[in-house]
Amino acid sequence: GAGVSQSPSNKVTEKGKDVELRCDPISGHTALYWYRQSLGQGLEFLIYFQGNSAPDKSGLPSDRFSAERTGGSVSTLTIQRTQQEDSAVYLCASSQIGTGGGLNEKLFFGSGTQLSVL
Amino acid sequence: ILNVEQSPQSLHVQEGDSTNFTCSFPSSNFYALHWYRWETAKSPEALFVMTLNGDEKKKGRISATLNTKEGYSYLYIKGSQPEDSATYLCAFREVAAGNKLTFGGGTRVLVKP
C-alpha cells in the first residue's frame, strides 16, 4: 500500500475484554514500531520489530500486552483484560533499514487506533 | 529512562512572525535526532533526521540545528503560516539502543491569522 495502515481506527471496549490492533506497514519496510499516546502525554514506546523478531519489548506496560509480526509484514498488538488506563491512541510506524544497516531512516506513521476502555 | 525534553509545551505565534523551540536530550551515547510534525487528525510526518554535531537542515521555511555535545536541537519556523499549526516532536536515538526512538512531549504551535 501507499502508507502505513492501521485498523480499526476506533475501538470502544468494556473493561476486562481483549482487543487486537492491526498494523500493515509500508511494503519492504523491515522495522516496525508500536507507540501509544495517552491523554496529555507524549508518545510512549511500546515495542519494535526487526523483521519478525522483537529485539526490544521494554516498553510493554504489563504482561497483558503482547505483539507479533508475521511474514515480516503485518503486526498485531493484543491487549488482554483491558483496563481503563489502557485508553490511548495506539500508533504504528515502519521504516527502512538503510544500506550498511544504518538506523537513521525516518519513521512513517499510520493514522492510529483510538482505544477507549469503558 | 532517557530524558528527552521539549520546551515550551505550547506557543502561540502571530502569522508572519518567526519562532523557535528546543529539544534537549542526553549528550552521551548520541546516535541520531529526529523531528516530526503532527497535525491534528493526521499522522506524524518526518521533517528531519540529524546525526552530526553542527548539522543544519532546512525544508522550506522550517530549519533545525543540532548540538550533540551539549544535548540540544532547535527547530525554527520562519514567517509562520496558519498551516504550520501542529505539534512538533523530537525523538532521540542512542548508541546501542537498536532501533528504539524516544520521543519528547512535543511543542504545540498555534499560528494565529
Structure commentary:
The complex is a heterodimer of chains A (118) and B (113). In chain A, 0% of the residues lie in helices and 48% in strands. By secondary structure, chain A is mostly beta strands. In chain A, the strands form two sheets. In chain A, strands 2, 4, 5, 6, 9, 10 and 11 form a seven-stranded mixed β-sheet that branches. Chain A starts with a strand and ends with a strand. In chain B, the strands form two sheets. In chain B, strands 2, 4, 5, 9, 10 and 11 form a six-stranded mixed β-sheet that branches. Chain B has a five-stranded antiparallel β-sheet with strand order 1-3-8-7-6, with no helix packed on it. In chain B, strand 6 and strand 7 form a beta hairpin. Chain B is globular. The model of chain B has no long low-confidence stretch (mean pLDDT 93). Chain A binds chain B through residues 3-4, 31, 33, 35, 41-45, 48, 50, 55-56, 58, 91, 93, 95, 103-112, and chain B through 31-32, 34, 36, 42-46, 49, 51, 89, 91, 93, 97-106.
